Amino acid sequence: MKHSTIRCFADDTRLSGKIGIAEDCSKLQEDLNAVTTWSDENNMKLHQDKFEYLSHRNKKSLLDELPFATEHFQYHTKSGDILYPTDQVMDLGVIVSSDLSWNNHISHMLQKARMMAAWVFNVFKCRDTCTMLTLYKSMVRSILEYCCPLWHPTSIGATQNIEALQRTFTRKIHGCQDMNYWERLSHLKLMSLQRRRERYIIITMWKILNGKHPNNMNIQFQHPKRNGITARLPNLTRSCSGKHQTMYDSSFAVQGPKLWNLLPAGITQITDLETFKICLYDEFLSKKSDRPPVRGYPCANSNFLKDC
Predict the structure, then answer these.
(1) Where in the chain are the domains?
(2) pTM to 2 decimals?
(3) Residue 208: Cβ within 10 Å count
(4) d(CA 127, CA 133)
(5) Whether 173 contacts 121, CB under 8 Å
(6) Element (H, E) at 15
(7) φ and ψ at 18, to 5 degrees?
(8) Nearest to 135 by CA among 173, 99, 102
(9) Collapsing DSSP states into helix, strand and coil, what is residue 238?
(10) Contact assessment for residue 92 and residue 8, using Cβ atoms and an 8 Å cutoff
(11) What are the pLDDT digits (tens) for 1-16?
(12) Under 8 Å between Cβ of 289 and 185
């Protein structure tokens, strides 16, 4: 594309660009037309009636002050349909909101996982540990952890809501009814969902460091001899708003380096993934307490690794 960035995965295509002035809108429209023209010429007709338009706006721009400002935020398909901004879109199974919050995605994910858990309880009558854990890990927990390094929540409320589903499911397992949630985690040899999300973030950081994952966020690593390999935190403008500070704190570009920098020096220098996973748990995660926040029970801290 001449002016925009285009990314494709399977049959999904995304066109993105930064809009600052009216000319940028015209350039994005030009690239949109070029994509549909190319697809038609190569017998890959796009479903233009399924096009969606998502706009991330963190402040008012000069375009808002122009006459007929709303027209600058509308785009047209070659079939004549007008694309209006929407509040959210589903992108490869993840709900992305215009305000860059993950509340809608988390709510949708929890609803989907609850429905799957209810189906498991209705179809399978046995409640033995092996059967229940196999069903839970393969059919319920997989929903709760899909793409979690991206939408990893940092608020206690969201953490409690997600953890509540695992808490409810494990209560149904035979022999666990009289245990509290933390006792059940220990008895069933499970990590909290909160700790598992942090583990996935650390593993993703390892993949970025070792070239196994694209470094789209330009995460930078340092190699001091004493402290192992550390990651740099991105800079944030001091005059930014509280909203931007919250978005900054919850982003992978910040959470990833923070969690990575907690690791012992020896673990950061491991170059084999399987060895790294084993050492990550045996030498680091297993030595940390794992008492996730639960509604109705007081906790010593938030259970985030940085607080343990």
Answers:
(1) 5-86, 97-190, 197-287
(2) 0.86
(3) 21
(4) 9
(5) no
(6) strand 12-16
(7) -90, 130
(8) 173
(9) coil
(10) no
(11) 678 888 888 888 888 8
(12) no
